[in-house]
Design brief:
The protein is α/β, with parallel strands linked by helices. The chain contains 26 helices and 18 strands. The strands form 3 sheets. A 7-stranded parallel sheet has the order 3-4-2-5-6-1-7, with helices on both faces.
Amino acid sequence: MLDETLQRLFGYADFRPGQRPVVEAVMAGRSAAAIFPTGSGKSLCYQLPALHLPHLTLVISPLLALMQDQLAFLERHGIGAASIDSGQSREEAAAVMTGVERGEIRILMISVERLKNERFRAFIRRVPISLMVVDEAHCISEWGHNFRPDYLKLPDYQREFAIPQALLLTATATPRVIADMRERFSIAAQDVTTTGFYRGNLDLSVAPVPTASRPHALATWLRQRRGDMAPSPTIVYVTLQQTAERLAAYLNKAGIGATAYHAGLGAEQREAIQRDFMAGHNDCIVATIAFGMGIDKADIRAVVHYDLPKSIENYSQEIGRAGRDGNPSHCLMLAGRDTLGVLETFVYGDTPEHHGIRRVLDELQAGGARWELTLNALSLHANIRPLPLKTLLVQLELRGIIRPRHAYFADYRFKLLCDPEGLVTRFQGERQAFVQAILDASNKARTWYDLDFPRLEALGQERGLDTTRGRVITALDYFVDKGWLELQSRQLTEVYEVLTPDIDPGALSDELHGDFRAKEAAEIDRLHAMLGLFESESCLSRRLAGWFGDDRAPERCGHCSACRGQPARLPQGAERAPLTARRPDEWLDPFHQCLAHHGDGHPPTPDLLARFLCGITTPLFTRIKARQLTGFGALEGYPYREVREWVANHAA
């Protein structure tokens, strides 16, 4: 049965390595995990079973690009699949939901954040689901390289929606991360399939070049590789957006067509660049790490790291985009230690300050038994970036202090597409009174009505009506489906039940801050472990596979710079003027004044001052427009720890 579908719909004569045991585990009703390198066919492990399972397959992915690429593949093969995402209109999303309810759509793809949407949750409760698929499943582990706090809630969602089994997919998971994944989803050891991380067709070279000489070295290498041959698709990875722009301009002047790609470009421009690259119209992309996720292009012949990657896992994932067709491809590392400070700065910038954690705990206690928060407002109040703030909230969940109940949009507004009387008279009896109450509790501007939920609740009590929030939202969605009104929702509010209100905020702040500092140290250690890999005298392919617990790679691959007798020593980068000869006041005085007037009581701690001088963006800095002050980023590129210590010594 499975083999027949594989050949008839997908056009494959046989399974690729590792696919069969995963598919058979899913078809036998067991949860499973597939740990396959990038481009090794993880997606088929859910696409094929989805056609035979009785109900919907729900795919959760962290990236819209991953969804769109897979959807296009499924559409080409005539398989009913769709996504729901924020870029769709209400009509488009409603059409997808109708297709799911009718059974026409077998695979539905969403982001993890969609599961916090109360309207979507109400919909998905009505739909029987056979399988939950977690793409990029390493994100569920705090020991993974792209930890996403919302992923920790997926096991609870599986239970809440009564989904009988889960399939976890990832290309980069260390043994510790795999153990974490197994434990959270109760996956048996025999149902974890790994196919190995060794790629015999990838030539790995570490040939570090000093910063000033790197553009010329890259251009020379690209010319030598191409010669008189037809252009070959190449991705050059950099850390910063401005580096992408400058390097692409340099390569173009050197006669090598190149295009910059980064998050600072508009969505349409990024999509056009990606389309051109996929179609072969664009041969060389100079990109930040955002580029390449989900790209199914088999003939990428070279991946170059102009700057250091963020981790060994990122390096493995990025070089894994080369040579998916099995033909020889080259992976070159040009970077030295000169960008290490930038990577370390990213790590330090995500560590919440002690007093910021205390502010969150004070807000929690002030909220009583039901704590309602909007993430952006709390992020600004505590001066904690959204991602580490989500991590903090999850840590409070794991300690049994809070429990998420639901999330809702605080503000709903609607525009009637028929006259009010016509809407009301479509119903009779209690339903007619209910619809009239919705209109009476809404404040009308020129064309839009703002729904006042407290007022509606009061009207419901006065008139003896059921005006519970769930019923109101279901009714509004029904009106939208009928074409009677247009609906907008804003201000996502998360609701938590406070299980332990009598916490000691001082002691808990110490504990949580210690945890974040420990995670910070672990991330810095990961960076230095990566440097150790690149400077290794033993086989790079072997060491890279070993990082992921794979001992099947040969002792000597014969196609890496170490095996060729060229072990690397990463240059330190240009020396910087010592800080000891200067005083921080020359850069910090304007910031101190701004903080005193507009800083909402945030103290000028050594960490806050160091982040200002190193150019690390924080929610507070964005609000007070710190980037416009002359000292912002004055010490960008200096080691963060050195700047923090220097500031602290002068403050003592």
